[in-house]
Amino acid sequence: MALARVSPPAFSSPFLIHSLLRPFSSPSSVLRPRVTRVPHHRGFAIAAALSQASPLPSADGDGAVMEAPPRPSSRRPWKPTCLYYTQGKCTMLNDTLHLEKFNHNLSTDLPVNYSAADKVKSQKLDYFLVLDLEGKVEILEFPVVMIDAQSMEFVDSFHRFVHPTAMSEQRIREYIEGKYGKFGVDRVWHDTAIPFMEVLQEFEDWIEHHKFWKKEQGGALNSAAFITCGNWDLKTKVPEQCRVSKIKLPSYFMEWINLKDIYLNFYNRRATGMMTMMRELQMPIVGSHHLGIDDAKNIARVVQRMLADGAVMQITAKRQSATGDVKFLFKNRIR
Questions:
Q1: 163: left (phi over 0), alpha (psi -120 to 50) or beta
Q2: Is 28 helix (H, G, I), strand (E, B) or coil?
Q3: How many domains is the chain partitioned into structurally?
Q4: Which of 34, 42, 79, 107 has the largest count of CB atoms under 10 Å?
Q5: Domain contains 333
Q6: What pLDDT is recorded for position 77?
């Protein structure tokens, strides 16, 4: 069944800082995510350019992660993503100070280099949906970054913070403080998190808008596939969360691409995770590790790099049914 952050200004008062910078919103100001297609350059073979900044994960307490001062070689200063914006709740898009401090365009962290075109291979899929869940007890963050498989351009994103349903409010506060307090994004989480069922309802609207799936038809994704860094997200965590939320596992979660397996078979070396891949590929990290939307962007950058090197992304795992075992399609895989 279908499921119908900001370096503070030179003021001494925290209240004044927050009153100037925080994108206040109320329940009545919740907006549906606005989707904008960017021009594609299908037919061009493209390699991913590395980010010019490697920010440190310090926090400012205003819903975003602060950057480190940019290196002298940086062509542009890195700015943290406005997490109210990714939730469809930023009300400060006309505030110049806010726009100077926050990034409202995820594509700036996912640039492409059109000059390196000789190794890129044709892909069987048109789009990759890079997914990296956060939350061990229950899912706390559901970020997806969409990449055009041929042009390697950032197309769109879906990002929601998820409110647990089987935990006490006190436990949730402790959980969120431990998980997101160190990034300074615990407040934006509390302001925007919604139950998992509602997240899936909005996500289904999103993939339906992009014509990847239809509620009345169900089935697998059309011309797109999830890419995860490991099998945990879709093999283990989503089914567990569906049971907790008392909903059936959606059909579009039945298959995925484990980037670790693609990496192993393409480069002939094992990577335990995203950080290992980025270190071996000499790629700097953008944002904060374990902030889901930043991890999803970094994984997407690894995908861009691998495609630029000539890798082909293929489905690596399939679930036979909502309750069935997972079949792994690569003999040489990460276990």
A1: beta
A2: helix
A3: 1
A4: 79
A5: no
A6: 84
CATH number for 316: 3.30.420.10
pTM above 0.85, yes or no: no
Q: Is the dihedral of CA 144, 147, 148, 150 positive or negative?
A: negative
Please check whether residue 185 lies inside any domain of the structure.
no
* H or E segment and range at residue 189: helix 186-192
74 close to 49: Cβ distance less than 8 angstroms: no
Q: Is the dihedral of CA 237, 270, 220, 299 positive or negative?
A: positive
134 is an active site residue? yes
**What's the average model confidence in pLDDT over 234-261?**
97
CA distance 21 to 54: 24
Question: Which of 67, 98, 134, 204 is flagged as catalytic?
Answer: 134
pLDDT at residue 75, as a whole number: 60
Domain residues for 100? Answer: 44-53+81-167+193-328
Half-sphere exposure in the Cβ direction for 311 (13 Å, CA): 26
- pLDDT higher than threshold 50 for residue 288: yes
CA Rg, the chain, in Å?
A: 19
- The residue among 149 and 75 whose pLDDT is bigger is 149
Contact yes or no for 30/91 (Cβ under 8 A): no
- Do residues 258 and 316 lie in contact, with contact meaning Cβ atoms separated by under 8 Å? yes
Give the pLDDT band of residue 175 (cuts 50, 70, 90): very high
Q: Which residues on neighbouring strands pair with residue 47, listed in sequence order?
A: 113
306 Cβ partners below 8 Å, 6+ apart?
259, 262, 263, 266, 313
Burial of residue 245 (number of CB atoms within 10 Å: 0-12, 13-18, 19+): buried
Residues 103 and 80: beta-carbon distance below 8 Å: yes
Q: Would 66 be classed as within a structural domain?
A: no
Query: What tokens does 24 get?
Result: 């206040």
For the stretch 318-331, pLDDT in tens is 998 888 899 999 99
Quick check: is 75 in a domain? no
